[in-house]
Write a structure and sequence with these properties.
The chain is mainly α and 530 residues long. It has four domains: 1-17 and 109-259, Growth Hormone, Chain: A; 34-103, no CATH class; 263-298, no CATH class; 307-530, Growth Hormone, Chain: A (Up-down Bundle), CATH 1.20.1250. The chain has helices at residues 3-17, 25-28, 46-53, 77-81, 111-114, 123-150, 152-171, 176-202, 207-234, 238-253, 263-268, 272-285, 311-316, 318-342, 352-361, 363-375, 380-404, 408-436, 442-459, 461-470, 474-490, 505-510, and strands at 34-36, 66-68, 93-95, 100-102. The strands form two sheets. The chain has a two-stranded antiparallel sheet with strand order 1-4. The protein has a two-stranded antiparallel sheet with strand order 2-3. Pfam families: Sugar_tr. InterPro entries: MFS_dom (IPR020846), MFS_sugar_transport-like (IPR005828), MFS_trans_sf (IPR036259). It comes from Capitella teleta (Polychaete worm). It is a multi-pass membrane protein.
Length: 530
């Protein structure tokens, strides 16, 4: 692997590092401490305003959405200054009807404070995250078509431009529909640029480096996960924060002429002269020479067999029907827990910035643990996918007791354990799915599973908020139970490590993983976090 490949990998890595944009809603969409605005008390300090106008809840904290139903114009300035709230404890209470005042000690401005997405409107913040995840789904489907038809290079930069434009529009929250739509477009550009960039890199690096660079690409994503809380700690305004993160994408645009189209794509399009020109440019930058008798026509491309099979053919097989359901449930559960934990770090004990950074940091060893366990004959594919979800589920269920007993620090630790193992499962299930599906419906099976993950990703933003409002331990109960069920059912699937895999649905009917041909070492060919 030469200078050219490393250069492209580093540049495309910028996309990966800044692709953890789903996490920014932990800060950009955060709800600061707030209370009802009372015009008559505008000149009083925040502490005085709350003392005079805001009742206490059952925990002795000031209500965020209620105020005393008192006509303060009937009182003199001196009365308000010497206010004795005990004399008004029995006053009736009403909802805020004149907006809110926001404490800016932690967040200067957020989307929630700018658009008053609090109290009865707070679920709309979760819906913004859902719109982003819907964009991720659409982007993954759309850019697969675009990159095959128009090329990896054009598709990557088109989605980078879309992502940059959507980010800039989303930065300035004119109104709620504007934020929701631009957040959706940001999701489309996010997944599109991430996936096409990954494909471009994988098509120009040597085969023996693909697995390693595939993992490093995932590590780039985790680094970006940790970078968001670091930036948010120093930049407390949502507009300034998003503008800063947009800068690297501007930088990437300037390298349009540095990164070439994938020569593999040119060969697939039978554009041999253009493919040869890129091969020669790569050789020149790498300070190497192509053989004198080099003939582009002799380059052998891997041909993918055309298949007319559909998902209905997959479902006709009773055995493959149940295997597909188990795999789809695994993807659904894994994605639900991954994003439920990632998007609700504000519910953990301690500092939200540090907690979010740790949630990203645990993914880095998880990436390498997944590779080791997947190729270790003791665990293989099946036990790695199963145990990772079972352990994550158990850790999540333990947090129910910790929440009820108010053991904040221990609760945070077990949450980190759950996040680490759910990340192992997320990285592993992609490999297991591609190996267990027969060749003629592999893309269909993988696409269906990925679709299930995107759907649960759209649900995840509502797990930590609305469910916790019903009963605080309900989110870990739902995620943990689903993970246990999914992990246990995964044990019913056949092991694929070191086995000969089926090519057709008919072969899959009889497949139990009993043949002796060895499956190649794991290679992560696509992101499972997007």
């Amino acid at each position: 692997m030469g200078t050219y490949q490393w250069m492209v990998f580093v540049l495309v890595g910028i996309i990966a590092v800044f692709s953890a944009e789903s996490i920014n809603m932990n800060f950009v969409g955060a709800s600061p401490e707030h209370w009802c605005q009372v015009e008559e008390l505008a000149n009083f300090s925040h502490a005085q305003q709350k003392y005079i106008a805001v009742p206490l809840d059952s925990d002795g904290e000031y209500e965020e959405c209620k105020q005393y139903n008192i006509n303060y114009t009937a009182y003199s300035l001196e009365d308000l200054i010497t206010w004795n709230r005990t004399q008004h404890d029995n006053s009736s209470i009403r909802d805020c009807d004149n907006g809110w005042i926001y404490d800016q000690s932690q967040y200067v401005n957020t989307v929630a404070s700018r658009l008053d997405l609090v109290c009865g409107q707070k679920e709309l913040v979760s819906l913004i995250s859902t719109m982003f995840m819907a964009g991720i789904l659409v982007g993954a489907v759309l850019t697969g078509y675009l990159s095959d038809k128009f090329g990896r290079h054009k598709a990557m930069y088109a989605t980078v431009l879309l992502r940059l434009a959507a980010m800039l529009m989303n930065t300035f929250p004119i109104n709620y529909p504007w934020v929701a739509v631009t957040r959706f477009l940001l999701g489309v550009g996010n997944s599109g640029s991430f996936l096409t960039g990954f494909i471009l890199v994988m098509e120009i690096v040597p085969p023996n480096m693909r697995a390693t660079l595939g993992i490093v690409y995932q590590v780039d994503f985790s680094v970006g996960f940790m970078l968001w809380p670091a930036l948010a700690y120093f930049i407390r305004d949502d507009v300034h924060l998003q503008l800063v993160v947009a800068v690297p994408l501007f930088v990437l645009l300037t390298f349009w002429w540095t990164i070439d189209e994938s020569p593999r794509w040119y060969l697939m399009q039978h554009r041999f002269n253009e493919a040869e020109a890129i091969f020669r440019r790569i050789a020149r930058i790498n300070n190497a020479e192509l053989p004198e008798d080099f003939d582009i026509m002799s380059v052998q491309m891997e041909e993918q067999e055309k298949s007319t099979k559909t998902c209905f053919d997959l479902m006709k097989s009773k055995r493959m029907f149940w295997r597909t359901l188990i795999i789809d449930l695994h993807w659904f559960s894994d994605s639900l827990m991954y994003y439920a934990l990632s998007l609700n770090s504000d519910n953990l004990f301690g500092n939200i910035y540090l907690n979010t950074a740790i949630l990203g940091a645990v993914e880095i060893p998880a990436n390498f643990i997944a590779i080791f366990m997947l190729n270790w004959r003791v665990t293989g594919r099946r036990y790695t996918c199963s145990l990772s979800l079972i352990i994550a589920g158990l850790a999540s269920l333990v947090t129910i007791y910790l929440i009820l007993e108010d053991m904040g620090l221990t609760y945070t630790i077990f949450t980190m354990v759950a996040k680490a193992f759910v990340s192992v499962g997320f990285n592993s299930i992609y490999v297991f799915t591609t190996e267990i599906m027969p060749t003629e419906v592999r893309n269909i099976g993988l696409g269906t599973a990925s679709m299930c993950a995107r759907v649960s990703g759209m649900i995840a933003p509502f797990i930590g908020g609305p469910l916790a409002d019903v009963w605080e331990p309900l989110p870990p109960l739902v995620c943990g139970s689903l993970a246990l069920v999914s992990g246990s059912l995964t044990l019913l699937l056949p092991e694929t490590l070191g086995k000969n895999l089926p090519s057709t649905i008919e072969e899959a009917e009889a497949f139990e993983g009993s043949s002796k041909a060895r499956v190649e070492a794991v290679q992560v060919d696509e992101s499972t976090k997007l």
